[in-house]
Amino acid sequence: MTPSASPAPRTLRVGIAGCGAISRNHMAAFRALDNVQIAGVCDVDLDRAQATAAAWGVPAAVATVGELLDLDLDLVSVCTPHPTHEDVVLQAAAAGVHVLCEKPIAIELASAERMVAACDAAEVRLGVLFQRRFWPAAQRIRAAIDDGTLGRPIMGQCSVMLHRDPEYYSRDAWRGTWANDGGGVLMTQAIHYIDLLQWFMGDVAEVYGRINTYKHGHHIEVEDSAAAVITFTSGAMATLEASTAVSPSLGVQLRVTGETGASASLTEFPEGSDGRVDLWAVAETISAEPAHPEGVHPNVDLATINGQLIPHHTTQVRDFVQALRDGTDPAITGHDATKALRILLAVYESSRSGQPVRFADLPSTKQTPAPVAG
Ligand SMILES: NC(=O)c1ccc[n+]([C@@H]2O[C@H](COP(=O)([O-])OP(=O)(O)OC[C@H]3O[C@@H](n4cnc5c(N)ncnc54)[C@H](O)[C@@H]3O)[C@@H](O)[C@H]2O)c1
What we know:
Keywords: NAD. This is Gfo/Idh/MocA family oxidoreductase. It comes from Arthrobacter humicola. Helix content is about 35%, strand content about 25%. The chain is α/β, with parallel strands linked by helices. The protein has 2 domains: about 10-130, NAD(P)-binding Rossmann-like Domain (Rossmann fold, 3-Layer(aba) Sandwich); about 130-305 and about 335-360, Dihydrodipicolinate Reductase, domain 2. A 9-stranded mixed sheet has the order 14-13-12-11-7-10-9-8-15. Strands 3-2-1-4-5-6 form a 6-stranded parallel sheet, with helices on both faces. Helix 1 (about 25-30) crosses helix 10 (about 310-325), helix 4 packs parallel to helix 5 (about 110-120) and helix 5 runs antiparallel to helix 11. The longest helix has 20 residues, at about 335-355. The protein starts with 11 loop residues before the first strand and ends in a 16-residue tail after the last strand. The mean pLDDT is about 90. The structure holds nicotinamide-adenine-dinucleotide (NAD).
């Protein structure tokens, strides 16, 4: 007797809030899944919402998150600018709708904590996009920590040396401001790799950091460059450097040395390409995964970057949808995503005060940090 086929899972109804650049990745990611329907999109710019709905065959386009949540949704993807994330997430939680939010979860610690608490109280899942954790290279290093190949991390290095044009910052009014962007290279670009660093290295104890604005000072108020020393509760240490004042871009490198003495590092070069293991120094042998094909201009166009990120958005979106079906936590929860935010906020606070910041003492709201003089 052939076993009867198990019933198809219920179709989940998805809403997408914000129809800008990154929403395309969410559209493509949800569209790639079975038994998921994008029921509606919303944007404060209704014309943009309508154009997006028409382009993707989505049945409803509305101008407010309230109207979107009225569409009987199971989950909403938050693709709006950073400072609006809290408002959208709180509305979704109040409506009993699960939320997948773009990074950074928020621009203030207090805001992130309110979002996590509201979703917990409403018993809805909150996931946050850090799609680079799904790189096979990142998974390979994480596994080498867990299986003892590297062992407990003792030293880490995170280098995020990128290029941005002035046009990048002038593209939208919210970019490059403390009030609306919440920070510069740390908040918007380096947060992905800070998340990977802490995922590899563990909980943070103390941060000592400095920020400055070397290249973009005449058109942004936030930092374009930062450096920090991070100490972990395990006693491990790491350095962080991050900048958007680099040309050509050097991409990203993230290296971990474990207590076995073995090291592994991954690189993202050019920016937006898949991370690959560029150093695997284990048991006296050194190897690396093959480099990406040559000939790619290192200062890649941002639209291209976002397009290239789609495969890993799809993996994380699939993980989130599966977690909802299974009633489990997604791979990256709001609580997890708050850890990277805390680290970069501690760099800002340390730069402002000139002192190391004990992680436990980090204030819930930040005072605007001034660039280091001299
Ligand atoms: N995971 C990644 O790699 C990645 C990459 C790029 C951007 N992002 C994040 O995605 C978010 C959006 O970035 P973007 O580049 O798409 O920005 P964007 O400016 O291109 O798009 C944002 C859209 O949201 C709309 N909007 C603003 N406030 C709204 C509100 N209250 N309700 C509904 N719509 C609203 C705007 O009109 C705009 O169309 C940011 O938080 C950013 O950090 C993540």
